Amino acid sequence: MAYTIRPLKQKDRRTLSRMISSIAQSEEFKHLVTIMERPDPVAGAPEKTEDQEEAATASTISFGVDVVKLIIDKLDGEASKWFADLIGVNDEEFLELDFDIELDILEQLSESKTFAGFFSKASRLYNRIKKSRGTSKDEKTQSDSETDSQNETSEN
Questions:
Q1: What is the pLDDT of residue 53?
Q2: pTM for this prediction
């Protein structure tokens, strides 16, 4: 029997975010993030071509699917409960479904604009936070250097 996932809702974002938080410190997740990181466009750079946009979207979807596969591996019970909810069955019924049901659900998730949008927005937010932290560190390092120089001058 074929199952179709329901439209993704706010509760799914919360569930997914909670599961991602649970695996965020794992080496496997850190590796996925490293692969996914890409530099922000430079100000004044030419607009992305349609092919580049499609490639970025495909990369984001692939990252999302890889994250969910890692969640399945690390948090099998939580992932199964979420998947059961997505297709409208209870936990026990889900465990009795076809061997490849998770793959069917992953395929449907990968085709969902909401799913892709979540990871796309999360990626942009992550890059902004990372960039602002880098700027703060650079400013602090520069400020520390200036303070050290002033202290050396005062001591002489």
A1: 79
A2: 0.72
Under DSSP, is residue 5 helix (H, G, I), strand (E, B) or coil?
coil
Alpha carbon distance 134, 139 (integer Å): 9
Contacts of 98 (CB under 8 A, 6+ apart): 1, 104
Q: How far is CA 121 from CA 8, 73, 128, 144, in A?
A: 15, 24, 11, 34
Residue 63 contacts by C-beta under 8 Å, 6 or more apart in sequence?
32, 35, 36, 119, 123
Burial class (CB in 10 A: 0-12, 13-18, 19+), 27: exposed
CB contact at 8 A, 114 and 133: no
The answer to whether 105 and 87 are in contact (CB under 8 A) is yes
**Which three-class secondary structure state does DSSP give residue 3?**
coil
Taking residue 119's Cβ as centre, other Cβ atoms within 10 Å add up to: 21
Tokens 């997505």 correspond to 86
pLDDT tens for 29-72 read: 999 888 877 655 554 556 778 887 788 778 888 899 999 999 99
Q: Which helix (H) or strand (E) holds 80?
A: helix 76-87
Question: Do 9 and 89 form a contact (C-beta atoms < 8 A)?
Answer: no
d(CA 78, CA 19): 8
